[in-house]
Design goal:
Length: 765
């Protein structure tokens, strides 16, 4: 079956693919299937998952494998997109193991019933979907969530997404996206946690735990999938799907750590990426898929290819035809074929059996991949409860109120205050009039962001409505759109200028449409699109104080706005609660605490720009031309990594370490005093960085090694403590061995990657 599902949201798929199939209601209660698991003995496996007794599962897998034909085994490696009559016949023959793009309890149960009751061995299907930042409840996009620096809260949001998705028959999400991205032209920067491997690893781990819960076999848990393995975010020139050429050191220091963190957190699956990596496509890369992931890290789950990535090996020109593509992907370590080829259909399904017969693929290799997939199906409890149990979800679904309140809290924490001249914010609650202007000000769709899964845009609170909900009856709200997001028409400016002049303040909501970031959404120019900046200028020229709310999926180049607007709030795409969160911040009901998980450049010419770069032989000096810099622009970013303001001031003092020297087996306690020296209570995200003075290979100028959120009342001080263990300072030396080198290290504790206190210590042999 050849379907291009990429333009459909996952919500629409269930409706589009199913009307032509007359499905009856499947049995809602778990039925005995032929290989029903009986053990209730739960143990924690090596990767931290609480599962049924491992030996019990392995025994069942062996038993099942011994009964499977080659065609049935290959069926388990085959993921189908959408369902039709042809797919139903394949299910009955045991030749489909998984679906993508099928949801809704009835649709899923119907297909599952065919697999469990009508196929020879009754092996259940696994249903995958892109549950990226919520399912029915839409949370902030991942880049926004990362701005909260609150992995625990994001874990909770993932738990809610999991139960909502599970109630619609989804067993497996293609998330978290853990690609490090240093290039904001790349639209998929929106889907990940930004530029830093330490922060990215913290979110990778939390998201996996959130989706998978305490026990994968719990009905409210779904399997996670760390993607896109690996280095997809390093696409040359920020152009999606483009070539990646990086050193093994950069791969191991920057791009691999979040995947390792996901594996350590027990992630069930990984997705192999589209990009080529140092000349070898990631979906045919034995070094990363088998040597590192399966051998070095001992990953026991399975790898699914990205959509059509196996077929694309022909375009990469490493495979002469589809058969060779199947051979290369499979022997490199891709266990499951997602969609195969959008034109010709499945690839593993038609080609693998032939490759086995020709002796090019060993049966043991097929068994190994099938084993991995069956293991996850057992761990998910699919053999015990293959169907969506509606009554369970009726009883166990968290209340809508609770889901909304987590979404609101996360949205508030995700907002980053970039500028607040003369403390114009928060606005007075009894302000007389406000002009709310901009194409995104009353927009119900775009705040959902890319990859909103099954949203209801009626649930989206717009900024205009959020403000209306908060202000008193006496505050006059004037609204004008001003222009569209991305056009050249100024004809509605006049209306916007007129209402601005009648108001005490103008709140301008500008930015990108949701489809300008996400997959296949690279931009060569990352200015605020269309006429929107011109609109901001004209309102500013009208002499009205200007507050800019940005909605966007990537850092934008906002030099003029940064210099001239009175206040700027980066809101990213916040999902359902966008307007409530933004209004709460505008009026001081929430004191902003978010910090940037990614550097904001001044110009695309500075890209890639990131805080943890290496030094050069000629670090930039103002009065020395022959140093590493630009003639036409400072080297510094517009806003550094970790930056974000508050309505109060936090001052840092008394940075102390408990020892000046340690051995590589000791640890060190770092303390710093943080004081709220302003008048408003609030949270500060305290950041710990280190820097190796001198090493075998050039060390980064600084690296994030810890962070803590502290709440302080006005005048209150707290001592924040971090522990540094030398293992945290290990790096890959010239021989690509991970080592802790003796020597002097700087310790920096501060507000962001550019504003901190420093001390140092030494590791002695
Ligand atoms: C994307 C993946 C996604 C998959 C399934 C691909 O095009 O790159 O991130 O999980 O489609 O929808």
């Amino acid at each position: 079956m050849k379907l291009n599902l990429k333009s459909l949201s996952c919500y629409s798929l269930g409706f589009i693919l199913f009307p032509f199939i007359a499905y009856s209601q499947a049995n809602q209660h778990a039925v005995q299937n032929k290989f029903n698991s009986t053990s209730s003995n739960k143990v924690k496996n090596e990767q931290g998952l609480y599962n049924q007794n491992e030996n019990d599962i392995e025994r069942k897998i062996n038993e099942l494998l011994s009964k499977m034909t080659l065609q049935e085994k290959i069926g388990q490696l085959n993921q189908h997109a959408g369902a039709d009559k042809e797919a139903e016949e394949l299910i009955k023959k045991g030749e489909i193991g998984s679906f993508l793009g099928v949801s809704g309890a009835e649709n899923v149960n119907k297909l599952q019933e065919l697999a469990v009751k009508k196929s020879r061995l009754g092996i259940p299907l696994i249903f995958g979907e892109d549950v990226i930042h919520g399912y029915h409840t839409t949370f902030p996009i991942p880049l926004a969530e990362a701005s909260s620096w609150d992995p625990e809260l994001v874990k909770e949001a993932c738990g809610i997404a999991a139960i909502e998705a599970a109630s619609e028959g989804i067993n497996w999400t293609f998330a978290p996206m853990v690609d490090i991205a240093r290039d904001p032209r790349w639209g998929r920067i929106a889907e990940g946690s930004g530029e830093d491997p330490f922060l990215g690893s913290a979110f990778a781990s939390a998201e996996v735990k959130g989706f998978q819960g305490e026990n994968l076999s719990d009905k409210k848990s779904i399997a996670a999938c760390a993607k896109h393995y690996v280095a997809y975010g390093a696409a040359e020139a920020g152009r999606d799907y483009n070539t990646v050429d990086i050193s093994e050191r950069t791969l191991r220091e920057i791009y691999l750590p979040p995947f390792k963190a996901a594996v350590d957190a027990g992630v069930a699956t990984l997705m192999s990426a589209f990009n080529s990596l140092n000349g070898v496509p990631a979906s045919a890369n034995y070094f990363t898929l088998t040597k590192i992931l399966k051998d070095e890290w001992g990953f026991k789950g399975f790898v699914v290819s990205d959509y059509n990535a196996i077929g694309e090996l022909v375009n990469h020109e490493i495979a002469a035809n589809k058969s060779e593509a199947a051979l290369k992907a499979f022997t490199a370590g891709v266990d499951m074929d997602m969609v195969g080829d959008t034109i010709e259909g499945d690839i593993y399904h038609p080609y693998l059996a032939k490759l086995v017969k020709e002796g090019k693929v060993q049966l043991e290799q097929i068994d190994e991949s099938v084993r991995r997939i069956l293991r996850i199906k057992y761990e998910l409890g699919l053999f015990d409860h293959p169907y969506v149990d509606k009554s369970y979800f009726e009883k166990n679904m968290p209340s809508q109120k609770y889901r909304d309140s987590i979404a609101l809290r996360l949205s508030e924490e995700s907002l980053v205050l970039l500028k607040n001249e003369n403390k114009i914010l928060p606005l007075k609650r009894n302000i007389k009039s406000i002009a709310v202007i901009g194409p995104l000000a009353d927009d119900h769709k775009d705040p959902l962001g890319p990859w909103a899964c099954a949203p209801d845009s009626n649930n989206v609170v717009t900024v205009l409505n959020g403000i209306k909900n908060l202000v008193s009856k006496d505050t006059k709200i004037n609204f004008a759109k001003g222009c569209e997001i991305n056009d050249t028409d100024e004809s509605n400016f006049e209306d916007a200028i007129r209402i601005a002049k009648q108001s005490d303040v103008a709140v301008l909501v500008v930015g990108e449409s949701s489809d300008m970031s996400g997959e296949a959404s690279s931009r060569a120019d990352i200015d605020v699109p269309g006429m929107q900046q011109e609109l901001v200028k004209r309102i500013y020229e009208a002499g009205v104080p200007v507050i800019v709310i940005l909605m966007n999926g990537r850092p934008l180049t906002i030099n003029w706005i940064s210099q001239n607007a009175n206040a700027i709030i980066e809101s990213w795409f916040l999902g359902d609660q966008a307007g409530n969160a933004i209004a709460n911040v505008l009026f001081g009901y929430y004191n902003p605490s978010g910090k940037l998980p990614v550097t904001f450049p001044r110009s695309v010419g500075q890209i890639p720009i990131y805080y943890n770069h290496l030094n050069t032989g000629r670090p930039p000096e103002n009065d020395n031309r022959y140093t590493s810099k630009y003639l036409d622009l400072p080297v510094t970013p517009l806003y550094p990594f970790g930056f974000g303001l508050s309505y109060t001031n936090f001052s840092y003092s008394d940075l102390k370490i408990d020892k000046n020297e340690i051995s590589d087996k000791d640890s060190l306690i770092v303390t710093a005093k943080i004081t709220n020296s302003g008048n408003t209570a609030g949270d500060e995200i305290v950041q710990l960085y280190t820097h190796d003075h001198y090493a075998d290979v050039s060390p980064p100028v600084k690296e994030l090694k810890g962070f803590k959120r502290v709440y302080l009342n006005p005048g209150e001080s707290k001592l924040v403590k971090f522990i540094i263990k030398p293992a945290m300072l290990a790096f890959y030396n010239i021989k690509m061995k991970k080592v802790i080198e003796p020597g002097v290290y700087d310790v920096m504790v501060g507000k962001n990657s550019d504003d901190y206190l420093t001390t140092s210590f030494e590791i002695k042999n």
